[in-house]
Design brief:
This protein is an alpha+beta fold. Helix content is about 65%, strand content about 15%. The strands form three sheets. The protein has a four-stranded antiparallel sheet with strand order 6-7-1-8. Helix 4 runs antiparallel to helix 10.
Length: about 325
């Protein structure tokens, strides 16, 4: 064991490594050049992807409305009316969470029929403004899904499969200090990247609006039901006041456009690709290829000079 260590330490030295590199310089250059050429073709084969971004802020009118919900709920609870208001949390955080929820995104994908553009897109030709799809899973001419998949999956992907692909390219970042929300989406088609963000913002506002309108309507109905059951004049007057407040909030909700999220900076069609940065990619991979080529020749010549059989015998002796 000791002799193996001594022989190994004796053989390993930087001077010998430098001599090997100098001796193999032409082979290293040739192999590195071949790797560089391969890197160029690899970089050219990569699909361009583009990122569109939107900057949003919470709608203060919605937050105020939620404050009114709390007041209505507090007084209504004294009358024994259950409005489930105690379960309402900050509407802004609830909106952010809803954007990625299975229910919202499932409805969003299905209603907009985004299956092919999210799941089957393969590339985009900026000159002809045409998207191309993976023909092993989807035929655009006939709108047919031909994906070979095992049950319980079907040739046409489910909304949950498409949702997973969508979420891989969707980024949502909340600025806690400024209260702003940044949403980005990356896609081979820059126009679709922008359009998807526009549709997503529009639909989440409608989704939250519908949810709150239904809630206001339930509150008003609960208050009317309570009025019909009570004979206490003071309580009846209070309940009518609550209905009036609730109806005003309902009217605001029905009239609002940017109900939950206001657009500060709308999404635009990106002009420059996000990935790949081909020059950087080729240079980086070529440098790694040069290092790899050098290591391969150094290891080969180093072990050859030491003797493969001798190394094997020493390893066997070590064990």
């Amino acid at each position: 064991m000791e002799s193996f260590r001594e022989e190994k330490n004796f053989e390993i030295n930087f001077l010998k490594i430098a001599r090997i590199i100098w001796k193999r310089k032409y082979q290293i250059v040739i192999l590195s050049s071949l790797i560089a050429v391969f890197n160029v073709f690899y970089a050219l084969s990569l699909t361009n992807v583009y990122t569109s971004e939107a900057e949003l802020a919470p709608n203060e009118n919605t937050e105020t409305s939620l404050g009114a919900f709390d007041r209505i709920g507090g007084i209504a609870s004294l009358a024994g009316i259950s409005t489930n208001i105690g379960n309402e949390t900050n509407n802004y955080n609830l909106t952010i969470r809803s954007i990625t929820s299975k229910q919202f995104l499932g409805e969003f994908i299905d209603k907009r029929d985004l299956y092919a553009d999210i799941f089957a897109i393969s590339s985009y030709d900026i000159e002809t403004d045409k998207s191309y799809y993976d023909e092993t899973i989807y035929i655009e001419k006939t709108s047919s899904w031909i994906r070979k998949i095992k049950k319980p999956y079907k040739p046409k992907p489910s909304v949950y499969e498409v949702r997973e692909v969508l979420l891989e390219n969707l980024t949502i970042t909340k600025d806690s200090k400024m209260g702003l929300l940044y949403i980005t989406y990356t896609h081979p088609n820059p126009n679709f990247a922008k359009e998807l963000l526009e549709m997503l913002i529009n639909d989440i506002n409608l989704y939250m609006q519908k949810r709150d309108i239904e809630f206001y309507s339930r509150v008003s109905q609960s208050l009317r039901d309570e009025i019909a059951k009570t004979e206490d004049k003071n309580l009846i007057d209070s309940l009518y006041s609550l209905i009036e407040v609730n109806q005003r909030k309902l009217a605001v909700a029905e009239a609002s456009r940017e109900y939950a999220l206001k657009i500060i900076d709308k999404p635009v069609t990106p002009e420059g690709r996000t990935f790949p940065v081909r020059s950087t990619l080729v240079i980086t991979l070529s440098l790694l290829g040069g290092i790899f080529s050098t290591i391969i020749f150094v290891i080969h010549d180093y072990l050859k000079s030491f003797g493969y059989r001798r190394i094997f015998d020493l390893i066997q002796k070590e064990n």
